[in-house]
Amino acid sequence: MSVTKPLPHDSAKLHVTGTARYVDDIPVPADCLHLAFGLSDIACGSIQSINLDAVRAAPGVTSVWLAGDLPTDCDCSPSVHDEPLLSDGQIHYLGQPVFLVAATSHTAARHAARLGQIEYSPEPALLTIEDAYLAGSQFGDAPRIWERGTAAPAIYAAAHVIEGVLDMGGQEHFYLESQAAMVMPQDGGDMLVHSSTQHPSEIQHKVAHALDIPMHAVQVETRRMGGGFGGKESQGNALAISCAVVAAATGRPAKMRYDRDDDFTITGKRHDFQIRYRVGTDESGRIEGAEFLQLARCGWAQDLSFPVADRAMLHTDNAYFLPNVRIESHRLKTNTQSATAFRGFGGPQGMLGIERVMDHIAHTLGQDPLAVRRVNFYDTPETQSGRTSTPYGQEVDDFVLDELVTKLADQCDYSIRREAAAQWNETNPVLKRGIALTPVKFGISFTLTHLNQAGALVHVYQDGSIQLNHGGTEMGQGLFQKVAQVAASRFGVPIETIKITATDTGKVPNTSATAASSGSDLNGMAVKAACDTIRDRMATHLGKNVQFEGGSVVVDGSAIPFAEAAKRCYESRISLSATGFYKTPKLEWNPETGQGRPFFYFAYGAACSEVVIDTLTGENRILRTDIIHDAGASLNPVLDIGQVEGGFVQGAGWLTTEELIWDDKGRLRTHAPSTYKIPACSDRPDIFNVSLWDGQNTEDTIYRSKAVGEPPFMLGIAVLMALSDAVGACGDIYADLNAPATPERILKAVQKVRDGI
Amino acid sequence: MYSFEVERPTSVADAAAALGKDEAQALGGGQTLIPTLKQRLASPSVLVSLAGIADIKGVSVDGGTVTIGGGTTHGVVAAEAGAYPALAALAGNIGDPAVRNRGTIGGSLANNDPSACYPSAALASGATIVTNSREIAADDYFQGLFETALEEGEIVISVKFPIPEAASYQKFEQPASRFALVGVYVAKFADGVRVAVTGASEGGVYRWSEAEAALSGNFSADALDGLTVSGDDMISDLHGSGDYRAHLVKVMTKRAVAAAS
User: What Å distances lie between residue A241 and A193, A195, A200, CA to CA?
Assistant: First the structure.
């Protein structure tokens, strides 16, 4: 069977030979216009006057748009209609698009976009979490508060009380292919949109709204993205809308792509958070009560910040039972880029909070951090001690982490190496080692329940070849191959029989974003349904006891080639095309009360990282990382391990080298690879052992697999905890290392722990 | 980039004549100048490429001196200046291979970027910068951020490095660009020790005289223990605070001494 085989990515050869086609590679008609935004130079204020004479006179410029020239407000928001394409006179962040230039080349448009003369009336900008929190600047009428039990009395009565503050930075997506879109005008004002987007239906919806035309008049096609990571869930709207507006006004095709600096400056990033915590524990370190204040910097527009902040709240527990808990979440409005979806979608931030708490408890009680983690774990299906309910009321009934962590700790010699690191630190005054083993429990499903649906369209041609289409998008993660393996398995044919085609709103409508790790779960099931419909029709026609296997159809024990079977069905006028549909069962969720079952199931994993720091400079290296990750019964082990490796490295990057710096005017100063450091191949651990947990999903997912896109990102938390463990070797104070743990931040933490400064 | 003319002289005399034109600018390997032009931060009318002048390229050794032509790339210095190992090692760790195959020592010294590597080598070695009109001691040559003793149109023909008894360059890299967040070059001569610091000061490359005095009496890392570096005049930017840079100056100096001893 094709599923479970370690097949390479379907586009691997195209990727390595440079022939995989991205939006910017699509040949354009000769009269195509190229677009660029003129950006604001201040973070907050209003526009007093605009003089665009020099822009209009610049070489190659054909036309220029201000907000008043647009057919509508051309709203770009995926949520609450608060993102006009161009400034309506108010400036909300430095880098906000103010005007749109169309020119005969990309370079001409960008040059002209810098020539606008705009006078502003500046106002004080709110840039930081502290600024916005003190000013009470937030989205929503009040902070969201979820409670279970009574946290404050439980903490008061506890043997030990631990409290602290954790700051963590944001993160730029740094997809290799920056945002891009191209629109070709069609008959009667219809629009064909090529977009580098994780959400073609959203692009379709927003373009239709901008032009005030029905969705049927807009077709969006996405073959692939050069990386998405959540950054192309909503942030592509502005480009596609701009291209459509220009195409509608001029009748000419239009294309827009952000230069890297513009992409950094304009688009949203991961939410940075401050988490304040106060927990009470018993003598063993077991939490009896916990309070968390989560402050999320959301930027100027709401975008997806509510579901992101909700998911942070939903991962406050991670793998640990919190009998009495109160979580208060503020979604702070600031004059910065509108923070958006990023792999994990708030989950990593919430989870980092409780992982910090575990280390802080262990330090306070003088225990091994892993022992404290284990004493706080949820029940396994066997233990049954009443510790199975999450703070939001969903039961954890398949908790494999106890077993998984035991296996990982054994395999990587956690205890021996922890002892060895301690001994080594005794004798080495300059270099200090640290080790940490952290678990991940991540909820799978969109928390906006209606998004948990998917469609597919499958055609079997009379020569036996099969064309496949579904609502998911390919961003390099290998979704198309995994789904093709499902189709090949249903028909019992070799993978080469299946043709994967570009995501197209004209083929499968009303799709959800390829997000929340749900691509394979949802689309795999929809494709399975479509394949089974066709298979059942073929079987019914061909006879009794029909099997599809090995490229043949076996009817009453005699095999005929699949192609022959398809031909016979066609000639007998059997329909060989079908749609498929899937909706995730069992979900019931109320975000207001924070109660219900938001997730179909949980994905699990654990990582053990060992690091070394230089206490003179703060320099550091990851020496070794061991990971076991739960992908259920993996649809494709090599693609899944690729996701686990990449997720860990990206998570470690978020917490170590990736530092976003805004100056006091609100200008993002890190806007290129020369100033913003993402991990490279050489930054991965020298010893990097990654394996998949040998299990299967207890829920009825596609071939009992589990989603694998986001969960491994949070394995990177082990690196920050190992770094703070190493810092902790310098003295007796708890090393409350913040993220990103740059060398300078590590040095400061060392000085605090060692010298009390 | 604004438009400009390009001249490609093959002799120093022709290059000097070309640089006499209005708003002419010498072009070495272009690793700083071309990005500057792309950003439209400069608008020379004529670029005079020095890449075609054979006389200012190459590495030669004469007794205790290594002489490097101003037009010699970092890659060539790394490969051919083995007579002065610390200098060759510095050249081999500038930027990335693309930078090392285009960028030149003359270009780097003429630009005097406060985070560049070469100025510290020239200053710590007590090098002599030879131009088409005179010889300038390194101590007189570096005059602040992007400022040198070079006159308009003056061309760096070569740099003469006395070979020390021992030397080492230690760079703390800004991880994204690999420029020096702090770089310290220590050179030990028979008559004393010279220590030059790059990347750190708001005044550009400078000699740390207290460290030189301490090390001249006792060339060991311990000799620096009693010294402190103030963060007051250090660069404070998105890559690091002045205090952090000041702290790194001492650490990197110790490392350089340890590596050279």
Answer: 9, 10, 12
* Domain B5-49: CATH architecture, name and number where available: 2-Layer Sandwich (3.30)
| Chain B interface mutation, best of A115, A674, A678, A745, highest count of B Cβ atoms under 10 Å | A674
Distance from CA of A680 to the nearest CA of B (A): 10
Tokens of A387: 């510790």
Does residue B69 belong to the interface with chain A, where contact is any CB pair within 8 Å? Answer: no
CA nearest neighbour of A648 among A672, A628, A618: A628
- For the domain spanning B54-162, the CATH number is 3.30.465.10
- Whole-number pLDDT of residue B39: 84
Instruction: Tell me the domain boundaries of chain A.
Output: 30-124+173-266, 273-447+590-755, 453-583
Residues constituting chain B:
261
> How many interchain CB pairs under 8 A, A with B?
25
Q: Average pLDDT over chain A, rounded to whole? A: 97
Asked if A30-124+173-266 and A273-447+590-755 have one fold, the answer is no
pLDDT tens digits for range A591-604: 999 999 999 999 99
Strands B192-198 and B206-207 come out as: antiparallel
**For A106-158, how does the pLDDT look when each residue is reduced to its tens digit (9 = 90+)?**
999 999 999 999 999 999 999 999 999 999 999 999 999 999 999 999 999 99
Predicted confidence (pLDDT) per residue in A282-340, tens digit: 999 999 999 999 999 999 999 999 999 999 999 999 999 999 999 999 999 999 999 99
Per the CB < 8 A criterion, the answer to whether A260 and A94 are in contact is no
Nearest CA in chain A to B240: A744
By the 10 Å C-beta count (0-12 exposed, 13-18 middle, 19+ buried), B36 is classed as: middle
Is there a contact between A747 and B238 if contact means CB atoms under 8 Å apart? no
Task: Determine the residue of chain B that is closest to A677 in CA distance.
Answer: B176
CATH architecture of the domain covering B166-260? 2-Layer Sandwich (3.30)
At the top level of CATH, the class of A273-447+590-755 is alpha beta
Strands B46-49 and B5-7, how do they pair? parallel
Contact A747 B239 (CB under 8 A): no
Cα A550–chain centre separation: 37
CATH, domain A30-124+173-266, list 3.90.1170.50, 3.40.50.300, 3.50.50.60, 3.20.20.70:
3.90.1170.50
Q: CA of B244: which chain A residue's CA is closest?
A: A744
Domain boundaries, chain B: 5-49, 54-162, 166-260
Mutate which: B174, B237, B247, vs A, most A CBs within 10 A: B247
Is the domain A453-583 a CATH 3.40.50.150 member?
no
Report the gap between the CA of A426 and the closest CA in chain B (Å): 22
